[in-house]
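# nightly structure sweep
# worker-07 picked up a monomer target from the shared queue
# config: single-sequence mode, recycle default, output format = structure tokens
# input follows
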Amino acid sequence: MPQTMMQHNFFRWQLCGWTTWFLLAGGGCATLTPSSATAQRDPAELLSTSPSRTDVQRASYSEADDKKKPDDSLKLEDFSPDNLGKTAKKLTGYGPNRDIAYKFFREAEEAYRRAMSQQGAERTASFLEAQQKFVAAADRYPDSALEQDAWFYAGECAFFTDQYPKANEFFEKLIKGYPNNRHMDVVDQRRFVIARWWVEKTDKQGESFWAINLFDKTRPWRDTRGNALRVFDKIRIDDPTGRLADDATLAAGNAKFSEGDYLRADDFYEDLRNNFPTSEHQFMAHFLGLKAKLLSYRGSEYTGTDLEEADKIVKQIRRQFPDDYGREREFIDRTAAEIRYKQAEREWDRGYYYDFRGEYRAAASHYATVVSKFADTPFGDRARKRIGEIEGLPPVPPQKLQWLVDLLPESDDIKPLVTAAARPGTVVR
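# output follows
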């Protein structure tokens, strides 16, 4: 039988080596590959690179937007629980106002451009000023093209001042209000890098369930890893056809695998295999999913579905990825042997269970399955030997408490079943 611990150690080397490097350093659909000059830099430095756009792109204000005037009159729905906050702003003079929103947006543009040419504390101060005004602009002109751009650039300002939870909050507001917005590619890249950064931080430093973050603006107030996985999942859900959807699925699966949640990791790998058939991560989804299924298997006392699915994955790898299989042949073949051993062990244990109970007909059936399907395993000879030993023994044990069975009325539906089960060679349906 292959040694599970040796395989597990080998696999952890795979996961932490070229597999994880491929995903985090440049593999996949994400255009996040670091240059040779930055490949060895700390992830925090990579997050603080220059903004992706050299200028604020003006919102595409249509004539309809320009002519639209906010309705200042109060209606019955303004007093519903969901709208009380907006109504309070309207009554206090802070409701929607296109002209004020334009003013805030122009001031934010100026601060954003200024930050582009600054360094250090001055750059941070300008970004924070721009962020505040972009938020104000979005708040004063809801349901407009201006609001769409304002939320995006507010997120950019937060991102480049290392306020990653705040940046993600702004990006999610943008996506909630405008699911098909024109900034989606950049937003997905930002959120992917943020989530990856959070996973790396918890991998290195750990995080107690009870820990609360009050001072580090780069991390959520609690459950950093959980928030990272939620962001990965949101990327998949918000933009399922986007360039990073498959990358986020693989990253989430790897994060779950590294923390020992093999069942959830297996779900992510299976999702990647089924829903992203053209992804360049397909081999990794099969390779990592294979190991996740084996580690999810709890023993012969439980269902053997994981073993059956793992066996299918081995066959798929050999058929669909011949080159990758050639490179990993030793590991995959050893894993295939382990699967067959555990399947044979499971069938043998089921036969032994009936054997112990004296139900030799059922036991012989399982032993025969071991001989016919798993003769190449150590259980094949054991099953063949045991079949010879129980041959001729009663197929079922003698009926106990026969006097109680005799007391059952003939019309009772139970009695025919009980008496039939006691007759050799009778199959009860």
